[in-house]
Model the fold of this input.
Amino acid sequence: MADHADRLRAIIRTQTEIAASDLDLLATMQLIAERSQELTCASGAVVEIVEEDELVYHVATGDATPYLGMRIEQGSSLSGLCVTEERLLRSDDTANDPRVDAEACKRVNAASMICVPLLHRREVVGVLKVYSGVVGNFDDEAVEALELLTDLIAAHISHATRFEMADHDSRHDALTGLPNRRAYEERLAVETARAIRYDQPLAICLLDLDGFKDVNDRLGHPAGDEVLRGVARVIDDSRVADDAFRIGGDEFAVLMPQTDPAAARLAAARLTHRIATAGLGDGEIGASFGVAPATADPERSHLAADTDLMRAKARLHDEP
Done:
């Protein structure tokens, strides 16, 4: 474990790096989470943001990476207690600590942890948490290092709004409200890592609208925009809403965790049927889809689904 002088140098280096760069808030939190893990010899680090009665994993490093985006109830975790009490909390042995969700800690291999509140305008807006699979992993100097690092986040938060905390705008499509290509690529990497780690299937489905160009040409771009919003509403009403993205002009992506390609094709067929029968663009809009299983290379997996989609589009054009 790093000594006191090394920790202080690392914190000063982090502060300098943030000040000298053009990092946005999310990138700053990512950097500080990584430093937190390194300086405390933790196995994972998380920045959790408060959203109503839940805490959401907005940044995750190390062993916590597969859990990016996970939501936990405030009332059932040490992080939630940290928010309520507005003070740093440490658990040296989660298996024997009534304040923690022991089952959840066991699942993520968190035998010890530290939670530090993140303050914005004197209100707790989140938690910086580090954890380890080793009981009693964290000493008093680790606590001090985390407090200094959270001060860096707090200084950055002071120039941001709550909406910037979620980095919503940069990851969502303004027209449809769905997550965008950037969000898709990030989520694909996370879901791929999780699927491989736990040996679970993950399917990628790409959707491309049929007849969209004709609607744009015949009815105008405002009508085309309404079609895209209508497709987003159809998706939003389906079970895949939380894992759907608009990744291009009239192209959408759906990630299907714990789903093999055969089941994904059935789900995609149901979704495209709903789109075709929704009466969009004077009833002229349909959709084609391509499906592929996720592999260790997210880019290749996406390309495989895109190739399958192009075959489906070619078959459509070959039909009489």
About this structure: The first strand starts at residue 44 and ends at 51. The radius of gyration is 23 Å. Residues 75 and 103 are 15 Å apart (CA to CA).
